[in-house]
Amino acid sequence: MAAGRHRAAKRRRPRRLLVSGLILAALASGGTASALWYDRDRPSAGPSSDPIDEIDVTETPPSTDDPDDRASREEDRVSRTEEREALGARAPVGSAHEASPVATEPMYLTEDLNVWSGPGEDTSLLTVLDEGAEIKATGRVIDGWAEIVRGGKLRWVNAEYLSTEEPEDDSGGSGGSDDSGGLSDAPCASGSEVEDGLVSNAIAVHRAVCAEFPEITTYYGLRPGDDGYHGTGQALDIMTSDSATGDAIAAFVQDNYSALGVSEIIWSQQIWTVERMDEGWRWMEDQGSDTANHYDHVHVSVY
Fold it and tell me: Which of 301, 236, 246 is nearest to 269 (CA)?
């Protein structure tokens, strides 16, 4: 119980009764032993020192047949039931909770922002939203993490990068990459057989890259039995041994990672991931061959 709560009133020490005696007495008198609250159901600051056959109880006054009394109790019970249902409507913190109807307000991202299943980076990273994107915030914030509604579910983002001001339309400006559009989703002229078994984001990567780099004609996607992203259709290998071309492809995919749903890129024995993007490209251990070290292909994994 919080300190200072109900300070003005002294608590009456409940009478101590033997449970067996109480029940037998109730049965003998033709009454009931209902409407009793046992102190062992309440939180305790320490282990109980009561004898095992004794329980602290608080006995309520016997019920009456007064109609006004019954109506009052019924109204109170309905009111408390509605209150519990209202409190229960809020989904608890965590992943995959359906969002109940809840008031939201539009807010906008001031940076590309990760979306998490819970309030913290120890939860699951679900996707990345573009800078300037509009989200629906519930107003609930826990330790700097803001609750939002996305796809009918409660999700979480870093509250530091939210703003109530809608960003200005700068589509006519020059410079910079366009994460939100300008990517081709047309089937590749070289064929789309590689798309069999791929998830939608991997297909999007294939079509965007083949439109931007028509000289690339060899791709590898689903690899049944693979215990990594290739086994789930969440990876695409873009085959090239030309260093400059590989650099350009890796940079193109990195620039458009959000629109394409990219989670990681591997090229020339280096890896770049969305979760650790602030670290940039990181060197990987030597795997013993050009293919294993990704010198002859750009590997792209997606969400």
Answer: 246
Burial of 246 by CB count in 10 Å (0-12 exposed, 13-18 middle, 19+ buried)?
Answer: buried
Please spell the DSSP secondary structure of 219-236, one letter per residue: EE---TT-SSGGGGT-EE
Strands of the 235-239 sheet, one edge to the other: 219-220, 235-239, 297-302, 262-267, 270-273, 282-283
Which domains are present in the chain?
12-61 (no CATH), 105-163 (2.30.30.40), 193-302 (3.30.1380)
pLDDT digits (tens, 9 = 90+) for 103-142: 889 999 998 888 889 999 899 888 888 888 888 999 999 9
Residues in the chain: 303
Place of tokens 């789309």: 192
Would the pTM count as exceeding 0.70? no
- Which spans in the chain are helix H? 19-28, 67-88, 200-212, 243-255, 257-260
